[in-house]
Amino acid sequence: MTSQPDAISPAALMPRQHVPALEVPLVSGGRYTLGQQPGENFDLIVFYRGLHCPVCAKYLLELERLSEQYAARGVRIIAISSDTEDRARTMAEKVGAKGIEFGYDLDLDTARQWGLFISASRGRTSIGIEEPTLFSEPGVFLVRPDGTLYYGSVQTMPFARPPFDDLLGAVGFALDKTYPARGEYGGEV
């Protein structure tokens, strides 16, 4: 039997609790620092795999299409990857980013603190772009202006992500009904 290396499990974030610190440079200049200039109601933080991922590009195109509706609900949107500035800028251009801010150089230790899974390169993807040596898999989070988690979803694969139109509807419902973050119980079961 082959022994496996010790696994490093991603962190589990808890709703209504503070999320880890997050600070990344932006392709538009400056830095995104969680908690500084938050959206009125939420920051929507979308961790994506990188320029090499055609599923990410399609997913972010959908988010860009809905970005004005998110903004109207007081949601600031940032898409973040561990890509370099050039690769992140190319992705921003590819999706025609106007309503999405693009952050880059995500530290993979920070990615793990957010509960993201890490993958190793398998070479060139179906669109002919080389994967980075290591990169994070997707995650979507809504964070309140006070820095607490409202919603979170992480994937081990690029597929089957939460649809942004559904999430937009959920944001509207949450705001209209003052619906609390759920999944907050951490006691014995």
In brief:
With 189 residues, the protein is of the alpha/beta class.
Model description:
This protein is of the alpha/beta class and 189 residues long. It has one domain (23-168): Glutaredoxin (3-Layer(aba) Sandwich). Helices cover 26% and strands 20% of the residues. It has helices spanning 54-72, 85-94, 108-113, 164-177, and strands spanning 23-25, 31-33, 42-47, 75-80, 101-103, 118-120, 134-136, 139-143, 149-154. The strands form 3 sheets. Strands 5-4-3-8-9 form a 5-stranded mixed sheet. The protein is globular. The termini are far apart.
List keywords for this structure.
single chain, 189 residues, alpha/beta, Glutaredoxin, two-stranded antiparallel sheet
How would you summarize the topology of this molecule?
Layout: E1 23-25, E2 31-33, E3 42-47, H1 54-72, E4 75-80, H2 85-94, E5 101-103, H3 108-113, E6 118-120, E7 134-136, E8 139-143, E9 149-154, H4 164-177
Parallel strand pairs: 3-4, 4-5
Antiparallel strand pairs: 1-2, 3-8, 6-7, 8-9
Helix pairs in contact: 1-4
Mean pLDDT: 94
Going by CATH, the homologous superfamily would be Glutaredoxin
Question: Number of helix segments?
Answer: 4
Relative strand content: 15-25%
For the terminal residues, how far apart are their CA atoms?
Answer: 35 Å
SSE order, as H and E?
A: EEEHEHEHEEEEH
CATH class: Alpha Beta
Number of E-state strands: 9
Q: What's the CATH architecture?
A: 3-Layer(aba) Sandwich
CATH topology: Glutaredoxin
Structural class by sheet pairing and helices: alpha/beta
Q: pLDDT below 50 for ≥5 consecutive residues: which ranges?
A: none
Shape: globular
Q: What is the spatial order of strands in the main beta sheet?
A: 5-4-3-8-9
